[in-house]
């Protein structure tokens, strides 16, 4: 709960996590790959950092579908903050260790049958995930090696570049309306910045999930490769981006994204209130229950 | 004139039209198709409402080319308001009963040789048409079964989805500059939201009319089908959109369009003044006269 | 220096250049082609004006690569102002007299090892070039008959229409980050208006230079033709655009571009300060020196 509480503050997480100690990396060899583990024993995210290249790989490993629970988001934000503070880390690849799925997005169990306080805390963590990733100084590449609906799609769109496995059984999109819920304005803004206004209007209203080839066609992903080449291609992409001087790339990135980020930063509290009052409605809770029961049946 | 006067008020039209009575539909059978007729004997718009599907079809039937006269626009707005207030009506298809044309757009006779007061009243009705359609809670589909220049194109762009007859003799676009007049900012905004900034810049300046295949390519329409399948395809599309929960779709639609709508709502009076002072200029009136004479010759 | 000083003022340049005299064109014959030369003996821009068509052609002739030096920009702005004031001149084609290059963009020698005052004066001239071209009442067409990186790409994007030579050895793009510098917000805005947000984000960060066919695909240029047909095609394009009534086209163009122009106009001084403090940094000066040395070696 200490980690969760930290999300309530604007100041950095790391400063409050002295028990985590330093990064724990040893500069022995430029090819040494150091694996981070947070103090938590059940880590939902594994970070491999290659000091020789300056590139970290985040493996999401939260079975079964890398749902964004409050614990997951907290761990994600702490990892981001560690990497961001490390001058040697210039690039980040996000991928999944789970089969067939990149991430299923927000964990519905954090919104169903929970107190308004809990829902608000959860939403603040979702905001924080997006803010940290969309404003990252690192080159960020999504290695989308499985389906990526809703919040999973958001995470991918929030990166600088998207490589997806060319498997027609995978899909990606902001499908919130299909569940009877609504993507907030900053999900929408991120999508408009990625695929333009018209495609966003139609796909957000219909909650469209796109096949990889459709996603490529509308610009929702940048590149398709065979499933077993997603990570290697992501590594090559990061290398290409890192050939650009960091300061020029970072200023340019900030110039492209600042307005969108400021919009949420200046209205976080109102956005949380808006989410809480929406999600705690009886009709919405009923929609979530029906969806959860449908999921149970499918798995049963 | 009572109907026209009603357009001057912000409050709903129906409240002032007690003589129109209720919708006049009888809930006898779910497959019953009820045809509405406004109190006016010479109806310019025929509305078929299918209670079993919740979908209404508006047939524009104002010979020869469904021009948006003040009477037409007044009738359109009243029909929209009726449908919007009917909880059972969730989808709307707009199509034409005239051969070869969807709509030729604004009726030039309402702007040529008319008083500033009349021009202002007319422009307010054009604004109202756009506001009602762009902010509609219904799923709106344009079944474009003929040419659709200027205001006709605007009406189509204002819907949620556009299906056009794949007939190379038909065309669609905002061709105002070719007539020496100018599309106002909210026509422009609607087009930018549909096809993006660059395509809008080039096509508005040149007043480009696109063939159906060109229109599909730039995203001005969403789908092409043979002429005799436009309406059935529109019906299938509406069905697909109505599978999404109304409240989630409506909130999402509003989020996508609110900013554009607010821009006109907050400057309607200035926009009217701007239009009136432009259209009543001698040079513009001369352009309109030349255009009308050209039309006469073409038909003669 | 008088010309340069004039750039500091908001009022027109010509009013302060009485020594330049009138345009020096004689209305003898409608097919007469008059060549302008500015008072400067070493003209960097040659303007051919065809009174019969109302179209001027600007030939950039500043060896070796039409770099935008302060002198070049000053001459460009004066030429623009002359043409703009001439009611008979309705269209402008910009092209290069140098082989293989349209323009290499900003002259680095104006930013390297120069005083803050000089850098500020230079930047004001770059702003003025863009403001004059982006807000021009004339139809402006870029006849891109060679490579067009950085500021050269900006000049092309600032026109109404872009025709490029279909030679795979030519390239175009805003490649500033590759040099360790950053395109300012109005370069970015111009690119977003041309190719959209996502393509701008990726190409500005990577400093991508596109081949003509790639540039066509993303919408960075509008048309590709064989190298020897660039100018004739540009002439045909201007003719097509001039078929539209000037006043309607001009109002429409202003409507599309006003917001972007106002953004710079209302923050010119801050933008200059921002540029000066950035470009005079030791680290940036070092980047520029390395780039200049690389250029020397390449040519040597």
TrEMBL record, chains A, B, C:
Positions in coiled-coil regions: none
Keyword Magnesium among UniProt keywords: no
Keyword Heme among UniProt keywords: no
Pfam families reported for this sequence: ECH_1
Quaternary structure, from the entry: Homotrimer.
Protein's job: Key enzyme of fatty acid beta-oxidation. Able to isomerize both 3-cis (3Z) and 3-trans (3E) double bonds into the 2-trans (2E) form in a range of enoyl-CoA species, with a preference for (3Z)-enoyl-CoAs over (3E)-enoyl-CoAs. The catalytic efficiency of this enzyme is not affected by the fatty acyl chain length.
Similarity section: Belongs to the enoyl-CoA hydratase/isomerase family.
Protein name: Enoyl-CoA delta isomerase 1, mitochondrial
Organism: Channa striata
